[in-house]
Amino acid sequence: MASFIYYQEQARKRTGLLILLFALSVLGIGAALWLVAEAAVYYADGSAEAALAWHPSWRLFGYVLAGELAVVGLVSLSKFFSFSSGGAAVAESMGAREITGNPSSLEEQQLLNVVEEMSIAARIPAPRVFIMDDEPSINAFAAGSNTGDAAVAVTAGALRAFNREELQAVIGHEFSHIVNGDMRMNMKIISVLAGVMILSFLGRMAMCMARDSLLLQRGRRSSKGKDNGQSVAFAILAAGAAVWLAGLAGLFFGQIIQAAVSRQREFLADASSVQFTRNPMAMASALKKIGGVSRNRIRNAHGDEYAHLFFTAGIASIFATHPPLEERISRFDPAFNGEYPDMDEVLSVDDDGQDSDDDDTFEEEEE
Amino acid sequence: MSYGAIIGIAVAVIVVLWFIAAYNSLVRGRNGYKNAFAQIDVQLRRRYDLIPNLVNTVKGYAKHERETMEAVIAARNAAVAAAEGAGRTPGEPGAMKSLASAESGLAGALSRLLVTVERYPNLKADGNFARLQEELTATENKVAYARQAFNDAVTEYNTKRESFPVTIVSGLFGFKAAELLPEEKSEVREAPKVAF
């Protein structure tokens, strides 16, 4: 079993590589567009000698790249600044209730204490604390783009299922997201992808305009300037198609990279939680309990939108925002045999994820 | 101006900027661990303030455990005195030592009290006591995390100070190595033996 320090360094290095790959793929779009532009220029010329004498024109590359970066850059910046920075706003939009200095139960007092303890260990000011009362599933999230306006939330199911140490591990994991700026990083990636998407959309628009123009010209039979009009329209159609397709490819690979970055940050958060609590078994135990819930979906409508903020998420695929549960557990409990405790009893959750127990009695899980 | 001169000036400017950044980073690191040390004191005080309440709650239910409770109060007062002494002369080895031993004495007395409490189910069920016990657990954790945070801050600072090339700046400007807090060695580290 490697130390949490090793896992932290590994996650940071891999994040760096992925960001580099992301930047390269954005440049790659530019390179693809440049090749198409070169082809277009020589298509216009048409002769075999011109094709043989071809050499890359750095100036054309410069223009194409500048154009691409201008579109992507402008859109990214405007999207980035449109993100609301308030963590509490996100928590409230998920239907969470804030708990402050006067908690109404021992559980809530414990939660407040655990958050304070983790703030001391993480050396940041304590974030605002929320509970999602209507969620019987086990989950938690952190929101907010800087330590000044951060918020942390846990589901009612999590409070019921976890003992004090496990709650510390999960809160520590959320603190890591705050301390390591994971929310900001994701916002930046999303912003750039929004720019690529707009670029692709512009290409599509150009295609539509060119197609409409061609259809119009088919209808009229004017002899003067007919060929010129059609060539221009075809050129725009081709260019638009290139931009559209290159943009789609960029989006596709960009989203794969985004998911990979998110998974590395989750590993980093798990390791940093152990750095704060120095208690790897608590993290393993919390993850096992999550594995033991048969349907751990968030019921709130915004759940999918904020999936990347949560402690755990369902699917395991190339687009998954979280690494597979088994791998996360094995890092901290190498002896893990794949068996999860049955949590449905404790949470009183029936098959469709509804809370079948209306009574508010607190069932404590004895270790 | 020749190209060589321009490049030379650019390099010089970059080196100076790096020096400034490294110096500021060391200053941040040093203040970071000093701040973390002050946090420990804050948490210790909270613990001292909490203990009389705890003892009073226990007294109501466990009248026969006077000795245990008096031992806790005595240990607590000794620790407060030692902390104040240490506060007057921070870093002085004698004061630090007596603080450390007073602290471990208090931890031991508290642990014995909490073991005693196990014998009184009414006390355990008391809401007041449950809240106090939670507060005590939280306070003990906070003291432990404050010590840990201090050690983490010291380790970060020392690593920064010693790595190349920042070590050039450290040497030039006299940034000294910081000392880690030693582990609390007390009898409370052993699991208390409960006799049935």
Keywords:
heterodimer, A: 367 residues, mainly alpha, 4-stranded mixed β-sheet, 4 strands, 5% strand, disordered C terminus, B: 196 residues
Overview of the molecule:
The complex is a heterodimer of chains A (367) and B (196). Chain A is mostly helical. Helix content of chain A is 63%, strand content 5%. Chain A contains twelve helices and four strands. Chain A has helices at residues 4-45, 48-52, 58-82, 87-93, 106-122, 156-161, 164-179, 182-219, 226-277, 280-291, 325-332, 344-347, and strands at residues 97-99, 128-132, 140-143, 151-155. In chain B, helix 1 (3-61) packs antiparallel against helix 2 and helix 2 (66-88) packs antiparallel against helix 3 (93-117). Chain B is an all-alpha fold. Chains A and B meet through helix 5 of A and helix 1 and helix 5 of B.
Estimated radius of gyration of chain A: 26 Å
How would you sum up the global shape of chain B? elongated
Distance between the termini of chain A: 24 Å
Number of helices of chain B: 6
Range of helix content of chain A: 55-70%
β-strand percent of chain A reads under 5%
**Secondary structure tally, helices of chain A:** 12
What is the succession of H and E elements of chain A? HHHHEHEEEHHHHHHH
**Over all CA atoms, what is the radius of gyration of chain B?**
25 Å
Strand order of the largest sheet of chain A: 1-2-4-3
Number of strands of chain A: 4
Alpha-carbon distance between the termini of chain B? 91 Å
Largest sheet of chain A: 4 strands, mixed
Helix content of chain B: over 70%
Mean pLDDT of chain B: 80
Determine the structural class of chain B based on helices, strands and strand pairing: mainly alpha
